[in-house]
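cache lookup: miss for this entity combination. No prior model stored, computing from scratch. Input as submitted by user K.M.:
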Amino acid sequence: MAKGEIVLGCLAPHPPHVVYAENPEQNEAFSEGGWETLRWGYNRLARKLKTIDYDAMVIFTPHWQTYIGTHFLGLPEFKSKSVDPVFPNIFRFNYDISVDVELAEKMCEVAGESGIITKMMRNPDFRIDYGTITSCHMLNPEWDKPLVTISSNRNAHYYSPEVMNEQAGALGKACAKAIEDSGKKVVLISSHSLSHRHFVTESPLPEDMSREHIYNHSQYVWDMKLVDMMRGGKMREVIDIMPEYTEQTIAETEAGGLTWMMSAMGYPDYPAEIYGYQSVIGTGNLIAAWDPMEATREIVL
Amino acid sequence: MTEPDILFGVYCPPHPQPLLSPEASDGYGKIREAYETCRKRIEDSDADLILVYSTTWPSIIGHQIQAHPEPEWVHVDDDFHFLGSMPYKFRMDVDFAQAFRDAAESRGLQSRTVSYDGFPIDTGSVVALKLLNPENRIPACIVSSNMYANRAETIVLGKSARDAIQQQGKKAVVVVVSSLSNRMFTEHIDPTEDRIHSAKDDEWNRKILEFFEDGRLEDLSQLSREIHGQIRVQKVVAYKPAWWMSATMGQHNNYTGEVLAYEALHGSGGAVVMLTPSSETVGDKEFDEDDVEHYHGDRGVLDKGAL
Ligand SMILES: [Fe+2]
């Protein structure tokens, strides 16, 4: 069997606003649009994904929060409705997803062998979190690839962002080995915003773009610092400053997604493809991708 | 104007074990029994509203208040999914939810009701309502805990709840769903070997329970910041339940306190406590933090004192 590989890594923020703005038939809420910079960036990355041959998407989500280890979806199909607990007015999404259970079990096994506390999630009533749904829908609106969702263990809460960085890095390494062993071609998705301070009020029309801006300039400056480093292929350095960045901007990187993905991809030293940056309810959201194949790597923006 | 009619308060833990696996350990069973005691006391009272503040329902856009008349779903916990599913169907007091929202808004708070089929009611609220009000005999209301809210906002939220109870002439039972110490073990454990995560957490929990037993709720409210620093995992900015509970129940220390159970729930401190307003005095206290009636938002300081 040929060795499996990671064919692309995507930083894919999941404010449900972008799904809401697209008006897919699965979502009950109706919008007049909004957040085009992000949506058009997503549309372009989705087109690139269409040109790539892959078997499964593996997504690390901050909205399946576990404190007792790292959990993996472990049933072949989940069909239900996901209602965002924070923005139920805009996100009530009817989903029907398939899971690559074999790959999930392999990741769970290899992670367990490397000393990480793990658990397979086998309860058929379990509801898929809106982070998974938003990122996956925007990257693959046809939903024609199986997923593996990995929960985010809240090490940053229980210990510190430094411990989070260590643990997420170890999980990334284990997942990379599992992918290699599986013989599959896999797209990794790190689902989260960058800076993550929200406004605590919402305009009467959530998609009113005259009201949308970053929460404060400091968040913006930090986010841009990260984007610059990503463009420069300095992912080792990005992960090194992750604890500081996370604390300064209360970033959603606290869940460990970016560290997990970069570790799995061996801390790329090549430039990231940048697809768009925009604020959503004050938070900073970047769409980026890491393409290990030099021949297909692009300067997008 | 008469005082709002709050019959008693219940402080109880959000973990699903007392609902899903009470037989798994003596401790879980004792928490379950304590829930049963509360349930009977609620049934024997003439309460016409159960008002729940849940620390496992975080919100961002101000505070959200559940206003679906009959929310129904099968809930599964993120961590404890292997213990089983929690089917629920509750009866909500929609009029009260709207009055609570209006009262919150009139005190300067951002607030909204939510009424959507399939809205994910949180583990803590599901556990508490299923155990305290299994037949839905009494309509309920659930309010979220805003992840950015701090003391002033939380106290004003409690006062808004009080306004709404008074204005609607309800006889309310106030339920706060929260652990004491909230550090769980980070590995899977044998439930029969469950214990409080550390001696320090246990000592603080017992100190808090002494205050509860003495009915000193406002004192606990005043100690909230200290409790947060000592025994709360820093998931949110502050330990808020005692602020909300005390503000809702009248900001004093005159209660009869009953600690019905105190047990470990996967390492965290789970206690079931009842507080009934009483007329016995416990002496005057002085507090150095301002009481606050109206929420004015965050105070900007960057534009002041600039050169
Ligand atoms: Fe998020």
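stored under new cache key. The longest helix of chain B spans residues 26-44.
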